[in-house]
Amino acid sequence: MRTFLLTVALLISATAFAQVPSVTVENAKGEAFNTKSLLDEGTPMIVSFWSTSCKPCIRELDAVYDALPDWLDEVKFRVVAVSTDDSRLLAKAKSFAEGRGWGEEYTLLFDKNQDFMRAMNVSVVPHVFVIDGKGKIVYSHTSYVPGNELELFEAIKKCAK
Amino acid sequence: MKKIILSAGLILAAASLSAQEKGYLTGSFETTDHAYVADEANRFVPADDRFGSNNYLKLDYYNGNFSAGLQMEGYYPALIGYPGELNKYALSNFYANWKDDDFQVTVGTFYDQFGSGLLFRSWEDRLLGLNNAVMGARFAYNWEDKVSFKALWGMPRLGMEISDTQVRGADLSVSLSNIIGLDNIILSVEGSVLNRYEKIGIDAEEAGGSPNSIGYSGRLNFDWNGLFLKGEYVDLGKKLVALTPKRGNAQLVELGYNGRGLGVTLTGRRLEWMTQQISSKSVSSANLISYVPAMSTQYTYMLTTLHPYNPQLGDEMSYMFNSGEMGGQLDAFYNFRRGTALGGKRGMKVHANFSTYYTLAQEGSYKPGNLLFRDLSVDIEKQWTKEFKMVFLYSMQEYNPTYGSYKTTYLSNIFVADLLYKWTPTFSTRLELQYLTTKEDKKDWMAALLEVNFAPHWSVWASDMYNHGSSKMHYYNAGVSFTKGRTRLAAGYGRYKDGFICSGGVCRQIPQYTGANFSITTSF
């Protein structure tokens, strides 16, 4: 226990802001994708963790999808939807996202053993992050009720300033 | 062992701290607490202390290519229905990891998966009380986007302890399309091997058992303009079931198309003697080292989850052998776009699923035996106006109450309407109305749920599930949640039915109970 507390104290003393860790996930075609490369374009982004059995997650991504044309008129950003479905639902998650038209607007990632989810310390979905062009997490939120997407938009507008 | 890895992690952490760059610390905390109340109608008598409390604290430190972390868990005692070996406190997981574009080395506990997980998967699912992280070491290497290789060794965690069972495995994935340089086509071949070692008793040895078993899998992954094919063959090697040698094997095929607002997937799978445990001595529901989930729709509405499908992996049952199952499912998603005849002004989303599974007619056969489970479902989602959205779901479920021992099945028809109305941009209500009709089992059920949401922070709900066809029992539940940023607090009170909690297609059995619950989830 003492070793543990010492380590935590040591680590906190050297803490900078949280960023996007480097984790290997899959893209929509089943190829390996390193999450670090999300930062390559240097644009702000919304990263949303979802799963096919999570109704609020789907409502949130749909709400963002519906508002997207208007939002993009004001700010340049992109949306990354990370499915946390296990391999059992992996194929279904891909078909599901396609059936909702997300594939055309979102960057779809598939985190079938929840490695990215764990690395970002997401314990329950929905969980959404707003990340600025430099990779710094500026906003995050867990759970969703209709109307939460407005906060998301405010956060992404701040990033662009 | 623990100490060595912990010290190694600390040294690496210290070394990285002395580097120029500053790292960062992130973590999460979760507590779920129950207070149980005696409820005669629900046939529930709580244990003497009347409480249950599951607690998790996770910390991770990142600095450039280096990361290290730990997880602590405490059960005072575990919530009702959780695996019995979860008890008291443990520093259950800790690791140090180094990863650049090509290499990754991890020491300590790690999670990993080969292919779909049929041969090997270590993962965490707190809803199931499952964490079979492997304590040991792992090495991974990628040669550009052409070849990736990983090798691992260690001992899986079972409950609060690291088990004595050892696993050694390797996985290789070769992208032929990237090596040849094909555009628009993805073609890869993959293979894995897993050795499992566990000391066995003298009777098992005399019956021809061995402490070592070697399993392997071969996989194919193809995609061309949205058309895809995936295949996997798994051989678990020889093992003893009730002192009789058996050979575990599985075949999985996924075929489909994704594009132009359409998503279709056809899945076929056959399993035979696919139970693979960490320890042959434990009967825990978390005693798993591979992932063999139910390949059917995972529902969330109350009445659709009364009898979730539990796959038959092949095992000795109380009075017979059930060597496995075979079956498949077809999933189709379609988006009627805005402005089309059916889509209307705001579009319409349609999904249909058909799943059907049978026992194997006889060992080693590719012929179906008794029906285990069948489900035909359709759901339609329509945004009628800017304010009003409706989901309608119909599901016809048929399940075998004797897990295939007899032909008898129970059939039920389930209807769900889910109505969401946004009164203002931040105030909304959601109403679920559900009905289940069946001539068998407990006859008809009805259920309703009302949720009132005040964005951005508050949500209040109340529900009731009523078995008016037979037992006349009400299973009620009410609660409130408050969310701010990454923190969510929820409290509720309810009467719960016995049944199964399923997550990711894996289920654990829970007894009936009544009581209050409270939870905090946060991360930083």
3D structure, described in words:
The complex is a heterodimer of chains A (161) and B (524). Chain A is α/β, with parallel strands linked by helices and 161 residues long. Chain A has a single domain, classed as Glutaredoxin. Chain A has six helices and seven strands. Chain A has helices at residues 2-13, 55-74, 87-99, 102-105, 115-119, 148-160; strands at 24-27, 32-34, 45-50, 78-83, 107-110, 127-131, 137-142. Chain A has a seven-stranded mixed β-sheet. Chain A is globular, with a radius of gyration of 16 Å. The radius of gyration of chain B is 25 Å and the shape is globular. The two termini of chain B are 30 Å apart. In chain B, strand 28 and strand 29 (474-484) form a beta hairpin. Chain B has helices spanning 2-17, 176-180, 202-206, and strands at 24-36, 51-63, 66-75, 88-99, 103-110, 112-114, 120-122, 124-125, 130-131, 134-143, 147-158, 161-162, 166-175, 185-197, 212-224, 227-241, 244-259, 262-272, 315-316, 321-322, 324-336, 348-360, 368-383, 388-399, 410-424, 427-437, 445-454, 458-466, 474-484, 487-496, 499-503, 506-510, 513-523. Chain B has 524 residues and is mainly beta. Chain B has three helices and 33 strands. In chain B, the strands form five sheets. Chain B has a 24-stranded antiparallel β-barrel. In chain B, strands 6-7 form a two-stranded antiparallel sheet. Chains A and B meet through helix 1, helix 3, helix 5, strand 7 and helix 6 of A and helix 1, strand 1, strand 2, strand 17 and strand 18 of B.
Q: What would you say the CATH architecture of chain A is?
A: 3-Layer(aba) Sandwich
Q: What kind of oligomer do you see?
A: heterodimer
Class per helix and strand makeup of chain A: alpha/beta
How helical, in percent, are the residues of chain A? 40-55%
Number of strands of chain A: 7
Report Rg of chain A.
Answer: 16 Å
**Relative strand content of chain A:** 15-25%
Mean pLDDT across residues of chain A: 87
CATH topology term of chain A: Glutaredoxin
Which secondary-structure class do the elements of chain B indicate? Answer: mainly beta
Helix-strand pattern of chain A, N to C?
HEEEHEHHEHEEH
Q: What is the CATH superfamily label of chain A?
A: Glutaredoxin
How many DSSP H or I helices of chain B? Answer: 3
Taken as a percent bin, the fraction of beta residues of chain B is over 45%
Widest sheet of chain A: strand order?
2-1-5-4-3-6-7
- Which CATH class of chain A is shown? Alpha Beta
